[in-house]
Amino acid sequence: MNRAILSAVCVAAGVGAAAAAEVAPKDVQYGEYGAVEQSLTGQPGDAAAGRKVVGSKSLGNCVACHKISELIDDVPFHGEIGPPLDGAADRWSEAQLRGIVANAKMTFPESMMPSFYKTTGYIRPGKGFTGKAAQEPLPPLLTAQQIEDVVAYLMTLKYE
Amino acid sequence: MMTTSLKTMICTAAMLTLGAGAAAAQTDEKLVVNGETEITTQAPAPAHLDGALDTIYSGWEFRSPATREVQMDDFDNPGMIFVDQARQVWNTADGSEGKSCASCHDDPAQSMKGVRAVYPKWNEDAQEVRTLEMQINDCRTNRMGAEAWGYTDKGMTSMVALISLQSRGMPVNVAIDGPAQSTWEKGKELYYTRTGQLELSCANCHEDHYGDMIRADHLSQGQINGFPVYRLKNAKLNAVHSRFKGCVRDTRAETYKPGSPEFVALELYVASRGNGLDVEAPSVRN
Question: What is the distance between the terminal CA atoms of chain A, rounded to a whole angstrom?
Fold first, then answer.
């Protein structure tokens, strides 16, 4: 009995700690030009995991709109809606890339690029790809961890 | 069979190469069906698109050579099977009045010529803009005493294809002024509204990025002059509102229902963006 209560308390504390370190979508601080200085998780992202998010249709699906030469052998068919991401880390700082991935419209007003870390303010939001109505706040398209992983991966895209 | 899949592979490879460079150009090839019916697949944009588009293109121009070819011969075009089925239904009595479509409209080749080209269209008696589907169901319920068909049911879409075929090669020319104007304005607003969690409008994909690849799809202008469309992907005829629903769903939005006032308005507006392109039905797409 005692032990059960104890572990319940520990689990709750663990969850609380993780949530406290994570920046919620509504709390993200965007700079004047859309950059986000602070890591959303307080920890460095994992570039290998980010590479999967970028290429996966059910996750970031970034390649629907962007070509990434380094990825083409593993993930075929890249779109040409946005600029190729080769050399992205030469053009942008980590904070700028975090801002673009979290909510590109803060950097590029009216951009066609979806906002991956935003939960409210949509017109006729749906439940995933079901076509059925959903209530806001929606789960963000990517989690804080996935955003950081994608940013870590983008930081590896250099020309040299 | 072998040849077709080989062709498709070569085409896919060709498209990939094109895709790697600038936006792939539309084709110079001409659409001629059965070696005789010439179809206009490029035209100057109608005046109401000033500032948005200069030239309008049929979706046919964006498909692979193999897919384009299937539409050039009615013996190869699987959409014609559904047209033939509808021809039988046309002549079959249904409902309490014991009438068929033919009882009132005789031979569709005469009575239905040019009809598709001007739909959706204002109906003075009903004081509303009507799609072909709405008009067909009005005949079924009010003149035949038969049950209405489901808006995107197979029988309905096949009948729309039979009627549309009678306008093949005639330019789309829907009216957007007069009593239809407020519906048209509503459709226009829907076209430019960014919906769903992906916040995309029809215009984001079909006006700003036609000719570009989105993942493995070559984006067209999303014109509806070819509808109903036989899609190789689902091996059936597809109604305009089914396509709208799919595209809205893909923005992670709550869709509208086929036959809803919103989709009727959107259909009038999208049809008007194709004023000047020829009716193709039944067309073939991937």
Answer: 60
Best mutation target, B17, B252, B260, to test chain A (most A CBs within 10 A): B252
Q: Where are the domains positioned within chain A?
A: 22-154
Are A63 and B195 in contact (CB < 8 Å)?
no
Pairing of strands B229-231, B283-285: parallel
Residues of A in contact with B200 (CB under 8 A): 112, 114
> Is there a cis peptide before residue A137, judged by omega within 30 degrees of 0?
yes
Instruction: Report phi then psi at B129, rounded to 5.
Output: -80, 130
What ipTM is given for this predicted complex?
A: 0.91
**Cα separation, A38 vs A99, whole angstroms:** 10
Residue of A81, A115, A141, A142 to mutate when probing chain B, most B C-beta within 10 A:
A81
Verify whether the Cβ–Cβ distance B196 to A125 is below 8 Å: yes
pLDDT values of chain B reduced to their tens digit, one per residue, 286 residues = 333 343 333 333 333 333 333 334 578 899 999 999 999 999 999 999 999 999 999 999 999 999 999 999 999 999 999 999 999 999 999 999 999 999 999 999 999 999 999 999 999 999 999 999 999 999 999 999 999 999 999 999 999 999 999 999 999 999 999 999 999 999 999 999 999 999 999 999 999 999 999 999 999 999 999 999 999 999 999 999 999 999 999 999 999 999 999 999 999 999 999 999 999 999 999 9
- Tokens at residue A72, please? 């083409």
Q: Which residue of A has its CA nearest to B246?
A: A131
CATH 1.10.760.10 is right for the domain spanning A22-154: yes
Please say whether the beta carbons of B222 and B208 come within 8 A. Answer: no
How many other CB atoms are found less than 10 A from the CB of residue B147?
Answer: 11
**CA-closest candidate to residue B204, choices B215, B193, B213, B216:** B193
Q: Which two tokens stand for residue B62?
A: 């964006």
Query: Residue B247 catalytic?
Result: yes
Q: Which residues of B touch A137 (CB under 8 A)?
A: none
The Cα–Cα gap between A80 and A112 comes to: 12
d(CA B160, CA A116): 41
| Minimal CA separation from A66 to chain B, in Å | 8
